[in-house]
Amino acid sequence: MIFLELFLTFFKIGLFTFGGGYAMLPLIQEAVLEKGWLALEEVVNFIAVSESTPGPFAINMATYVGAEVGSAGFTGIESVLTGVFGSFCATLGVVLPSFIIILLVAKIFDKFRKNKVVAGCMKGLKPAVVGLIGAALISIGQTVFFPDGFSWDAFGGVGLWISLAIFAVMCVLSFKKVHPIVVICLSAVVGIVVGFALPLPL
Amino acid sequence: MEERKNLAEGIEETEEVSAPAPERKKGTLWELFFTFFKIGLFTFGGGYAMIPLIQKETVETKNWISDDDVLEILAIAESTPGPIAINSATFVGYRIRGFWGSFFSTLGVVTPSFIIILLIAFVLKEFQSIPAVQYAFWGIRAGVLALIFKALLNMYKKSKKNLFSYIVMALAFFVVAFFEINVIFVIIGCGLAGFIYSTIAERRMKK
Fold first, then answer.
1. Does A13 touch chain B (CB under 8 A)?
2. Residue A157 belongs to what domain range?
3. What is the pLDDT of residues B144-170, one digit of tens each?
4. Which residue from B67, B109, B154, B182 has the least number of CB within 10 angstroms?
5. Which residue does chain A place closest to B92, by CA atoms?
6. Contact A68, B117 (CB under 8 A)
7. What is the domain range of residue B116?
């Protein structure tokens, strides 16, 4: 049953994500690729959508994956209904673990935070998240720069060099505190101009 | 409960006379829902980006909680799993109105993204085949990589700089990047390693 699977998968993701923002990315990436729900390229596309729309990344991602997976194989009004229900299941799944855990620890929070086991685990979890996002960056970098898989031939194409250039320029802009939405819009404009000018193969 | 409410109202009335009153106001469930709906609607990027808005709405505008509570939210969000948005909405809601408070706050913070992304998910499908959109996303993917890279560096800068941290970072990176080990196992393993490390470190301190 796909809806139960959506719920359980996102429940697991919610339960094992520590820290905000992209901390969830390695888990989501692994889950959707393993289940064949989305291609890594689609995940990256959606990160851009999530950055340019309001709301937390986790909720946006759960809603999107739920809609995609839930509506797959249906058409018309049926696909809308199953898509909405899929989104509902995935979002409920990702929300429930934190909701339950916060309710449980809200009363004893001070004890919880100073608890030696919790504090000890956090010492390992925080650097782990940094390493995991690093690993996610490598595999995402591979799909961005080598969409057809890594090959030395790709270095002969213009496409790779332009996307490397976009990456470099956008890194500089990001570090100059340019807003993510501006970074995304600029990248889109460059993509459209370069895409039609070359033209890039679709 | 009723008694406490009356007490709170009584304090509110006298507040103007004997300022500054340390007592906090209590929002209704509807107010909680609406406030967190607004927070969900106006935060882009989520996560820590949400904290300043939570502070402004719940401390400055509504006077439901104090600045110290906001710091506490940050601490709790960092030491419990799940998205920070959900952790903080649940926590603030609970502080103000108990279980139903956290229910409506969480519902409020989730609803805007849920509706907006549902609409986008269906629209995106229709537009994905257009060449201009495909080219745009080709460029965007390189830009997103830059955003993730920046987020990674920021997280690295904030993390503890000691040998143990470096080893955990490197191990987590290598096993997932090159050996396709399940991410959840790595997280559990690193949590355990942190616990063992801090236990050993503490024993040494005692000696």
1. no
2. 149-202
3. 999 999 989 988 988 888 999 999 999
4. B67
5. A106
6. no
7. 2-125
